[in-house]
Write a structure and sequence with these properties.
alpha/beta; 11 helices; D-Maltodextrin-Binding Protein, domain 2; 9-stranded mixed β-sheet; two-stranded parallel sheet; 11 strands; 343 residues
């Protein structure tokens, strides 16, 4: 009996150790990938914008009217940055162009780029091997340049009292294994799961890769077509949960963002501590945790890319647009839209 007890204890220790190792590998992989991408962004852009402080002095900006498209997560950046670019560089006119038969997004934008319907694409995700392959089949060469950092934030109702979620818990909620907030330390309240439709790509694709790890959403997920509608539903549902771009929802008054981490002991908030309560908003608003997002300590970070075709008629404007965003003036404007600058 003593030997059996010892063996049982050893087996339990091995099982626990293996579980922790797998979870550690998952999160370390996410963080390492974020840091690696950041180092690559420095390599790709170094020299192209050196000693160029503002939009007015960026060279090789081709004059003309250019169609561009891509991610809906870039909406606030387009509004704040592109208008200044066109004001200070009147020789170029930029027209945001949506696809005709599907919702706008990074992937639909890249399809349009490969049909040479756009000069460049604003993307919330890196190019996939399939997109590189499709370009090669067409005799085209794609290039991506990271220009800013964003992340996926998880939002709940302001009255929901939990310290945060682990990545495993978040996965379990969105796949249906956890259905009540009581299971993660909250009140006895059913969880209502919200998401943008999978057809929108962008953030949904990133979430499925990093959190669901290509598992399916639970059958009862409520897919809502816009961020505005999702936030309205969440504000009226104490048991709701939703995810979106941190830049898009961090300053909203009707929701609360959750810290995330590998375990309950290493939760990292996407906002600057302390959390500003809803009662003080809009007089004060939450701001991004720039350090945690830039270094990928917060686990759901990703990069914003300018993507264009090399050695094509409009390739110069794609490179120039990236260079404009990477100037100190561009990076400062990016910060004002709640995205995180690279430096």
């Amino acid at each position: 009996m003593g030997n059996l007890g010892e063996k049982s204890q050893k087996l339990t220790s091995i099982t626990v150790g293996l579980t922790v190792f797998i979870a550690l590998a998952w999160t370390i992989g996410l963080i390492s990938r974020g840091i690696w991408q950041l180092s690559q962004s420095n390599i790709q852009t170094e020299g192209s914008i050196q000693n160029i402080p503002d939009f007015a002095r960026v060279p090789n900006v081709k004059a003309g009217v250019f169609n561009y498209g891509g991610s809906t997560a870039w909406a606030s950046l387009r509004l704040a940055v592109d208008s200044v670019i066109q004001s200070e560089r009147p020789e170029i006119q930029l027209r945001y162009t949506q696809p005709q038969n599907e919702p706008p997004g990074s992937s639909p934008g890249i399809k349009m780029l490969l049909r040479e319907e756009l000069a460049f694409v604003q993307s919330s995700q890196a190019l996939s091997p399939q997109e590189y392959q499709l370009a090669n089949q067409k005799g085209l060469k794609l290039r991506q340049i990271p220009v800013a950092v964003d992340s996926i934030a998880v939002a709940v109702h302001p009255r929901l009292d939990i310290p945060g979620l682990t990545l495993n818990q978040l996965q379990a909620i969105y796949t249906g294994k956890i259905a009540n907030w009581q299971e993660v330390g909250g009140m006895d309240l059913p969880i209502t799961v919200y998401s943008l439709p999978p057809s929108t790509g962008d953030l949904v694709d990133i979430f499925k890769t990093k959190i669901l790890q290509h598992r399916q959403f639970k059958p009862k997920v409520k897919f809502l077509p816009t961020t505005t509608l999702a936030l309205r539903q969440l504000a009226n549902n104490p048991g709701g949960i939703y995810y979106d771009s941190t830049a898009a929802i961090i300053s909203q008054c009707s929701i609360k963002l959750l810290p995330l981490g590998l375990t309950r002991n290493d939760l990292v908030a996407p906002y600057q501590q302390p959390l500003i309560p809803a009662s003080e908003c809009p007089r004060r608003r939450n701001r991004p945790n720039f350090q945690a997002l830039r270094t990928a300590q917060y686990p759901l970070t990703h990069y914003l890319y300018v993507i264009f075709l090399q050695n094509q008629a409009d390739s110069q404007i794609g490179q120039a647009y990236a260079n404009l965003l990477l100037t100190p003036q561009g990076q400062k404007l990016i910060t004002k839209t709640n995205f995180v600058p690279l430096d």
